Amino acid sequence: MGFIFKGRLEGGLCSECCESLSDVTVRLYRHAQDANVTALAVASPNDTISLLTDEQVRAKANLLIAEVQTGADGSFSFDLGAGQSYGGEAFEVDVYCGTVPHRKSNARATTARQFSITTLQPSWKGGDGNFVAIWSYCVPSRFWCWLRGLFDAWVICGRLTTCQDGTPIVGAVVNAIDVDWIQDDPLGSATTDGAGKFRIDYTSADFKVTPFSPFINLESVGGPDVYFKVTLAADTIIDEPPSTGRTPGRENVGPCFCVALCTDKVQTHPETVPHWQQVWGFDIHPDAGLPGSQFSVEGYAGGASNSFVFGDGNYLGGVQLNGNCPLTNVAAPSDSLEYRFLVGEWKWSGTPDDPTTIPSVAPASLAPVLQIRSTTVGYVSYIDGHGTYSWADVNIDNSDVQADGWVRVNGKSVTVDMHDGTTSVVAVNGGNFLRTNALMIMNSSAITGAHAPKLPGGLAQNAAGSSLTNAQKEPIRRYSLQFEVRDATTLATIYTDALSSIILDNSNVVAALDLEELFLNLCNPLGGAAKAHILYTVDHPHVNNFNVQISNNGGIVHPAPPLPNGSFLPGPNFFFRGSAGGPHNSTNTGGFAVDISADPACAYRVRLSWVTREYLTSGNWIDILYCKS
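and the corresponding structure tokens:
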């Protein structure tokens, strides 16, 4: 019987803004025998959260049950059981931060931090041979912002609306500036999303450094004094004077600052203007490769150090495309609007499917996207059977996609719960509909699936250590996407937009692991062997990192490095795909040799683990076991 403990962690930036605790390590600890576990378990996490000293962390090291790294959305999952000598009891939840989300590269150097959240007694629920418990937590802003400050990670979160009715203003560029005696410092800029929200990350260097640094630094104590300038297309819609930065609420702001901005200079209601804004959270404007773009010229997202690709391995099972298409044509209000996406694939100028190069020939034509995942595009209001004002999701799926890819939301019939045991049907219209920023969740597997896998079924275990040939390697698949909006009555095109490059990848990681010593007999203990020879292969066009480690019940015995490992780096390592150690040879001495002569008699696990650069996905691994007697 096992125990699966999973959940999600967030950090509060203010009452209106929070962030996922991505790429931090969640650690579970047993309690010391003299601890009052009951009292600790019933205490509020907001009262027990505390930063630990290095000495405190070292003191509890032998009490560690397990640790995992969170995903991009702050999610984590533990698989506990006999291997961790765990039986469902309460444990202490700690978080280890080597950094914090969105910390800029020019932040001052600092040390890693670990904090303890609470003692938790999970509410285990049985099912499928395991007990499962789910626990999510948002670190209070007072603590999280203080911790961010220790990492020199400063952030401004805000929302831009019309002053008249609070309508979000989409696609505006917000510039944050620090007013100083010598010169004003630009802290950063951001584009508002479909809800009018924006986020600007910066460091103390952005407001402390002057032309005379290091001899003269301003704001040696405290934070910046902030004012804003906002543009929409070529127009300035907010132009605050620098003196605004010296007013209460704007002066000497802390590591987390949240602000509400509004303007009366926007005349057109944003919901009447179609637009395509984002792929997930990455703005498509400016276009790929242009200055300020969040997409590289090749189509990778999130900057050179991330170089994210997109696929269907995330929690929505597709690629989310965000923006807005009004229900009707503002120039002809009785006419519905329809929208669609088209896709085309880049080709190679030389050898087709060459895994050593990126396709360089732009698509000659585009085809409609016809396969989508269920997408919540908005909410419809109605009065239920009890006379209560209610809302229901408006979802589109493949049945809403016409043969030529067009999707129409206006007039869509939605079955709603009347909360009295019956249902009713409501038609979407301008008076009962509120839109989300999702246009569709594209089924990218239907696009990349046009190509058969290069190595169907992967690599057999007895082939571990083999290096793949170019013909066996999956190439980089590069695409162009176009957004179109038309009048459903006249069929006249109302709006188009495009992203010239985006990388889609749904290929499987080719991975295999074996030991020379077990090659002929999986039940053969290594006995008094002085060395173990690891045969491994890991290959994928977008590996982020991989490593091989050997562990026993006491923890990691042989870490990476020196055991095989590698990671993606932009520039010279741009085509990093993994590695291979081997192959098997007739003397059983192939692969990576590990000195195990000093290892005690025990059961051991060799683990090959990897993470790809597919956005919003986590890593995976394969294991092989051996005994040393």
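(Above: one complete record from the training split.) The radius of gyration is 28 Å.
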